[in-house]
Design goal:
Length: 371
């Protein structure tokens, strides 16, 4: 009598395949795509650390715009030359007609401070704008104070645009804009993850942009209300902050959608690289532009976090003066992101695909498993 051969059967009755060991399990559990994405996350994390420490570890004043005036034109010019010749060029002094002109330039955001020279005494006055950032005002006080001391003089400081009592060190504008930026790229990421990273046709792209616009309107209003009436952190016009917030959120979200259209879900990481790794350290939040290293000082004004922070401070403390250029920059990002998103959809010309990770044909996960 022959003995039957023992076999291990699975739930369906078919014989189970023998295990290939731990390494085989690892290879089966961790796909090449997943490994590459994890390496990408590591690179993004290291870039984040490098960018923030690189921008903030050694703030140094450089060419801070400073108005200078004295009763006599010759004394004004001599003071401008002396301040401009300071080692390391921490100041960018410029002669103005009188104190009224200097004050107007500060409120128009043409300069960050003004030195009012009194030749009849030994004490001059320094006008600063704390609403533009406490670290910038302090840097001006230190640099001008040392220069005055070297001349045997002293300086009395007057803050002509102080930050609100609830706006510690003038950082609320920066944190508000960072929150708006986070909402912009997270909203766009969710739209991609829930319905495919690349919009399959122009109709889907328009729907995504429309949904992003609705979200931006809500996020802009709620952020402005929280920063203003609720927390009493920022003064200024609520409608103006609402408009700014809507534009910031939509611009960041549109760029994220565009990058997703170009690179799939990897575009989310590219958006974080642009907005968080490069944008936040260069935004002029903790340290305004004149205190940042040259690279960060150069890129900050043209990225959404920097443009948004500058505009928010202008609305809160300078009656909206100086908001024109940053608003145009944000509008440019919004238009560019929308145009690229639509162009990618038209180039794709396919049917709406399945959600990312659904495992259905055409999804990123299904494509990877087929490799």
């Amino acid at each position: 009598m022959n003995r039957p051969t023992d076999t291990a059967a699975g739930p369906s009755g078919s014989a189970a395949r023998p295990s290939g060991g731990f390494l085989a399990e690892v290879k089966d559990a961790v796909t090449t795509r997943a490994a590459l994405l994890v390496l990408g996350v590591l690179a993004l994390q290291l870039a984040f650390i490098t960018s923030y420490i690189g921008a903030f570890h050694h703030p140094k004043p450089s060419e801070i715009p400073l108005a200078v005036t004295a009763p006599a034109a010759r004394l004004t010019e001599r003071s401008v030359q002396q301040l401009g010749a300071l080692p390391g060029t921490p100041l960018d002094p410029r002669a103005v007609k009188d104190e009224a002109t200097a004050l107007r330039q500060i409120r128009n955001r043409d300069v960050d401070g003004a030195l009012i020279i009194d030749p009849g005494g030994t004490t001059d006055r320094l006008l600063v704008a704390g609403g533009a950032g406490a670290s910038l005002s302090q840097a001006l006080e230190e640099v001008v104070g040392r220069a005055e001391k070297a001349q045997g003089r002293t300086v009395a400081v007057t803050d002509v645009a102080p930050s609100a009592a609830g706006d510690g060190r003038g950082l609320s504008s920066f944190y508000l804009v960072v929150g708006w930026c986070v909402g912009g790229y997270l909203c766009a990421a969710i739209l991609a993850i829930s319905a495919g990273a690349r919009p399959a046709n122009s109709a889907r792209a328009v729907i995504r942009l429309g949904a992003l616009l609705v979200y931006s309107l809500a996020a802009g209003l709620l952020g402005a209300v929280i920063a203003g009436p609720v927390l009493d952190a920022l003064p200024g016009s609520i409608p103006a902050l609402w408009g700014l917030g809507t534009l910031v959120v939509f611009a960041v979200g549109a760029i994220t959608l565009a990058l997703q259209g170009l690179a799939g879900v990897v575009g989310i990481g590219l958006a974080i690289l642009l907005v968080v790794v490069f944008g936040n350290p260069s935004a002029g939040g903790a340290y305004p532009y004149p205190l940042l290293p040259p690279f960060w000082k150069a890129i900050g004004p043209v990225l959404p976090p920097g443009a948004g922070t500058y505009a928010a401070r202008s609305i809160a403390y300078f009656k909206g003066n100086g908001t024109g250029p940053p608003m145009l920059i944000l509008a440019g990002w919004a238009l560019l992101g929308s145009a690229v998103t639509l162009a990618c959809a038209l180039a794709h010309r396919g049917r709406p695909g399945p959600a990312v990770g659904s495992g259905l044909p055409g999804s990123d996960a299904a494509d990877e498993s087929a490799v």
